[in-house]
Request: fold
Amino acid sequence: MSEIIEVVQKQDPGSELVVLFDLEYADGSFAYFTSSYDSGSVQFRDASNNINTYESLPIQADGFDISSEGAYSRPTLTVGNVSSVFADAIGINFEDLIGRRVTRRITMKKYLVGESGDTFPAVEYPKTTYIIDRIMDRSIVSVSFELAAPFDLISVQLPRRQVLGGGCPWKYTGASPNLNEEDKLGGCIWHNQGAYKDEYVYVSKKDEYIIDQANTTINTFTSGSTSATANNYYSFVDSSPNFKRYDTNGNFDSGFSSITGYWQCVSDTSDDPSDTNVSWRRVRVWNDYSAATTYYAYSDPEFNEYVKYSNKIYKVKTISVSGTTPAIGNYWTYGDVCGKRVTSCSRRFHAIPDGNTGATIPTDKAVSLPFGGFPASRAFK
Reply:
């Protein structure tokens, strides 16, 4: 860049300008054209030191003005279409070029490959890239395209993914490592079956761990007579819940009188578990699905029961269920769901599996959270 600046400041640069066009007519496929020669072709290097051959075509390019004020310029690129020269050269219909990228490059003849000044990296003016926005005119003589800056297209927002301060834009488990590469979507690399560090970690939409009830030591906490120890799990019976339980017909169960909640002790305490007590953290429990078991739903859906089936965690949806195989539909929904918060990411990637429940209190804060819609997050490796 500095070399070409020094050259053009001379009264006689000693070489004429050459205008080159790189057209990405398909993903990863380029066609190279120049309007600077009447016939034949020229060669020029790209940023990777590859030598590209630019075929000579009748091209007229106008409107490549750059201004710091007003609307962005919309250049016009007119290509001679005699005997379909342009279409034959790229092997594609003109309509298929809408939305494709055109890069305009300007250098001097002496910096072309084969000339005395051929160097790497290539010596050229700053490149300008545009998108083919529409076909302005087409005849048997020529075809004219209107170009637009990448950020000046209707209904297109750049950057495509915004950095959000309060939520993650990625699809949960969209880039799960057990998916084929062509099926991956977005940047969330959490395993879609909860596999993490050779264990399993499941978390609810409320950022509550969902633990394996059958294989976890869960002590009973009795109000006024139990001292809880940090990291241990406890059940606590609420004999006067302020909500109701449904039966399998969708009616309130008149026999329902108490519910058992599950908790993890954060710090030693004798206080009763509650959502407002910092010594406690609520957890949910899952069991392997059994067709002979009734799984309950409540007027407070946060207490709807969880099961594990086909390596995934499901949650009762709206009414109590018996004998209905878990699947997304009228009776079941996924139980392992991301809350789209920084805490949600932390519950998963900061978890330390303990061999039974799948997680303890998050302590592995040295692990960076995956890249996503969070401020100051870094790529997760």
